[in-house]
């Protein structure tokens, strides 16, 4: 198997990071290096012994520079094969070998998420898998054949470093939450790069969430308009239609968005979801 690198980004969520790194350490293949990019600071990060972990602090004025943090982590990697993992994940022991076996210059490899309804005390995949549930929108996506590029999600993906550079990385003009993954999918699709699933899993550790994500209202609107300017179509339609139904925005037939009002505290409280996914 070729050498490979792992990248993850983190803000807060130190327990989730510790669980992720524990699961990486229990894998059948160990990475050559692990790049952890902090969007806050490096406090309380204690990598386990046996993993070659480098910690970076991204200096960015935006509170959630997701695209820039991902790019910085991938740029810092020491090998030509990259597996990006969201910090909320706990990986299957065989995930890396299965992904690397399929990784080629003209493809991107991903895996299936299973969702835990809590943050566990450890990253022991085998002990936790039976407590996780699948995502109904993803569990039936096929293995071993190309799937639609818009199924791309940065929760877990493998890519060759040269392929990532040829695509141009994540567009750092998308600031904060929303649309940066979809934009990346549009860019790799333009180059004929295909997205494949392998029959393997990550466990997603629970965190509080809003549905629709009113807590990211400003960046979702800004990124949606940025995406429309770039691709001539609005992304995140489900969320935008929910915002419109709540009276927060108006959308016309030309996909112009007008903000009517910002979410109220009551609306924010009412949007908290108990769903694990």
From TrEMBL:
GO molecular function: glycosyltransferase activity
Pfam families xref list: Glyco_tranf_2_2
Keywords, ordered alphabetically: Glycosyltransferase, Transferase
Ranges where the Glycosyltransferase 2-like prokaryotic type domain occurs: 59-187
Family assignment from sequence similarity: Belongs to the glycosyltransferase 2 family.
Protein name in the entry: Glycosyltransferase
Origin species: Mucilaginibacter aquatilis
């Amino acid at each position: 198997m070729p050498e490979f690198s792992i990248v993850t980004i983190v803000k807060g969520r130190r327990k989730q990071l510790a669980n992720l790194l524990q699961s990486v350490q229990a894998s059948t293949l160990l990475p050559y290096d692990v790049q952890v990019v902090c969007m806050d600071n490096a406090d309380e990060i204690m990598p386990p012994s046996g993993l070659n972990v480098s910690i970076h602090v991204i200096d960015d004025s935006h509170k959630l520079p997701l695209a820039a943090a991902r790019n910085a982590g991938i740029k810092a990697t020491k090998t030509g094969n990259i597996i990006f993992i969201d910090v909320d994940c706990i990986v299957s022991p065989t995930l890396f070998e299965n992904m690397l076996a399929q990784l080629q210059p003209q493809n991107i490899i991903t895996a299936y998420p299973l969702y835990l309804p809590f943050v566990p005390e450890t990253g022991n995949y085998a002990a936790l898998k039976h407590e996780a549930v699948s995502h109904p929108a993803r569990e039936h996506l096929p293995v071993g054949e190309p799937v639609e590029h818009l199924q791309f999600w940065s929760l877990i993906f493998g890519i060759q470093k040269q392929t990532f550079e040829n695509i141009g990385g994540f567009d750092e003009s998308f600031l904060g939450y929303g649309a940066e993954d979809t934009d990346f999918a549009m860019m790799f699709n333009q180059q004929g790069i295909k997205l494949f699933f392998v029959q393997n899993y990550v466990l997603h550790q629970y965190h509080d969430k809003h549905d629709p994500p009113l807590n990211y209202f400003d960046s979702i609107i800004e990124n949606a308009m940025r995406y429309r300017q770039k691709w001539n179509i609005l992304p995140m339609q489900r969320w935008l239609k929910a915002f419109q139904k709540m009276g927060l925005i108006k959308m016309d037939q030309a996909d112009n968005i007008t903000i009517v009002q910002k979410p109220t505290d009551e609306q924010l409280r009412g949007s908290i979801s108990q769903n694990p996914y």
